[in-house]
Write a structure and sequence with these properties.
The protein is mainly alpha-helical. The chain contains 12 helices and 8 strands. Strand 7 (about 180-185) and strand 8 (about 185-190) form a beta hairpin.
Length: about 280
């Protein structure tokens, strides 16, 4: 840390003060804390915006759905999922059916979790709130013996509920790298990009004389256009880590493996429709 502070001074940068809290990271048991997140500005920025500062805020936002390990060990979970899945009456093409059934099941599983296990998310957030409030007091005035005991109890409850939840966290950052337009001669234009991809006036470049591109065999071509087989789909799913999720919906491969027989008909319809409609 001393080397980092020395680098800041040598570079002529200013470490922007943090208001409302002194630290941005705390070890769970409170034994260590640090201000990891920093904003460094030069003198030009400070002279232009002399009253600029950063404010430490509590993390907020909706909780993403996650398929919890502890659910699978409950004796009633399997029948609950099977009965719910078969009760959903959804028609149209396979992709829409699977998407809608998973959406309905997600809602029902949340209600089932609250009924069977209680609302752990609410309890966990409550424990975190207590810890954060006491950390804020500790930053300014320090904690007395009663507050230290209260914080230790909140940490113990937090660790207990996190262990009960036994959730599979999927930390993925989904970046949207969409190009909707370009700056052309100082003006922003979106039609240029859209028209470029709609245009049919482009021709493939003519290959050089004697150039031969690689081609696949007839057998490979037959395999590529052949319908998906049930064993093929099963093999692909079983080769994936059960704790990983194929998408941001929170259903991991362990869920698809456990309920393969229940989901099989709808999943195979999805595979057949992908081939038929060339999606």
């Amino acid at each position: 840390m001393m080397a980092f502070n020395s680098f800041i001074n040598r570079s002529g940068l200013i470490d922007l003060p943090l208001h409302c809290r002194s630290y941005t990271w705390y070890k769970t048991d409170g034994s260590c804390k640090s201000r990891i997140n920093r904003v460094l500005l030069n003198n030009h920025c400070m002279s232009r915006w002399p009253n600029i500062y950063q404010k430490g805020l509590r993390r907020t936002g909706p909780k993403p759905f996650r398929c919890l390990n502890t659910w699978f060990s409950h004796p009633g979970f399997g029948n609950f999922v099977k009965d719910k899945w078969r009760s959903y009456n959804v028609e149209r093409w396979g992709g829409f059916i699977v998407k809608e059934k998973l959406k309905f099941l997600k809602t029902d599983m949340k209600e089932w979790n609250s009924l069977i296990f209680g609302n752990l998310d609410t309890a966990i957030e409550s424990h975190k709130q207590v810890i954060q409030e006491l950390d804020a007091i500790d930053d300014t005035f320090g904690l007395d013996k009663t507050e230290i005991i209260r914080r230790d109890e909140a940490v113990a409850l937090l660790l207990r509920d996190l262990k009960r939840k036994n959730s599979i966290y999927i930390n993925r950052r989904w970046k949207k790298n969409e190009i909707v337009g370009i700056e052309l001669n100082g003006e922003w234009c979106e039609e240029v990009v859209e028209n470029h991809f709609k245009s049919e006036g482009f021709a493939r470049p003519i290959p050089a004389v004697g150039f031969t591109s690689k081609t696949i065999s007839n057998d490979d071509n037959v395999n590529l256009i052949a319908p998906f087989e049930e064993d093929e789909v099963r093999t692909i799913i079983w080769e994936c880590d059960s704790s990983k999720s194929p998408g941001p919906d929170g259903f991991n491969f362990g869920f698809f493996k456990t309920f393969r027989e229940t989901l099989k008909e709808d999943m195979m319809k999805l595979m057949r429709d992908i081939k038929e409609f060339k999606i």
